[in-house]
Amino acid sequence: MRRPWLLASIVTIALAVQVPAAGTEPTVNPRAAETYRPDLWITLCGLSTGCTINPPPHPWRGNDVYNRTGDRQRWAVRMQDGEGVRFWLRLENDGTQRDTVIVDGCAGNRRFVVNVVVVGKVRRPVHGYEKITEAFKDGTATFDLGPSSSGDRVVLTLNIIAPTTAEGVTYRCPIHLTSVGNPTRQDTVVAEMTTY
């Protein structure tokens, strides 16, 4: 004797596990809302004081791209020895809750010196901007951000100089942005310089 509940269960399972028609893909939300989701962008301001060589506009890279490698979130530039370069970094909180984020930048070396990092989008040295150079280099710079949907964001200016006479030297400066609310949520951009 067949049990009606067994037959009904089989029909219910068959309806729940339908296979998509040939050539179609199941719909997946690529960016489901997360409670904590730091987002870091990077763009090139340009070379020399005031970014007079290769001046803006340059596209931002990293918007809504989240990874710890800098993949698709990298700016590479060639620069003469003795030259300086400026990058702008944009910090956002794509999560649904207010969060504190930590910026952990590169320390530089004798060939590529992290000269100054300031809060604000600047093209030349200007008095009155908050300098966070040491906190950037040792990974202790923090910012409190509301969700990006509220328009809350911070822009940093990163200035690096290459006081060397060596040609063909490359330096990668990874910058990490980590959520305090959920430290497993991190985003990374990379500024890369090569002398010629």
Short summary:
The chain has 196 residues and is mostly beta strands.
Features:
four-stranded antiparallel β-sheet; 2 helices; Immunoglobulin-like; mainly beta; 196 residues; 37% strand; five-stranded mixed β-sheet
What is the rounded Rg?
A: 23 Å
- Arithmetic mean pLDDT: 87
Task: Find the structural class using helix and strand composition.
Answer: mainly beta
In the CATH hierarchy, what is the class? Mainly Beta
CATH superfamily: Immunoglobulins
Strand content: 35-45%
Q: How is the biggest beta sheet arranged?
A: 5 strands, mixed
SSE topology string: HEEEEEHEEEE
Q: Find the CATH topology.
A: Immunoglobulin-like
Q: What's the arrangement of strands in the largest beta sheet?
A: 2-9-8-4-6
Q: How many helices?
A: 2
Give me the count of strands: 9
* Shape assignment: globular
Number of discrete domains? 1
Would you give an account of this structure?
With 196 residues, the protein is mainly beta. It has a single domain (31-195), classed as Immunoglobulins (Immunoglobulin-like, Sandwich). 10% of the residues lie in helices and 37% in strands. The strands form two sheets. The protein has a five-stranded mixed sheet with strand order 2-9-8-4-6. The protein starts with a helix and ends with a strand. Residues 1-30 have low confidence and may be disordered.
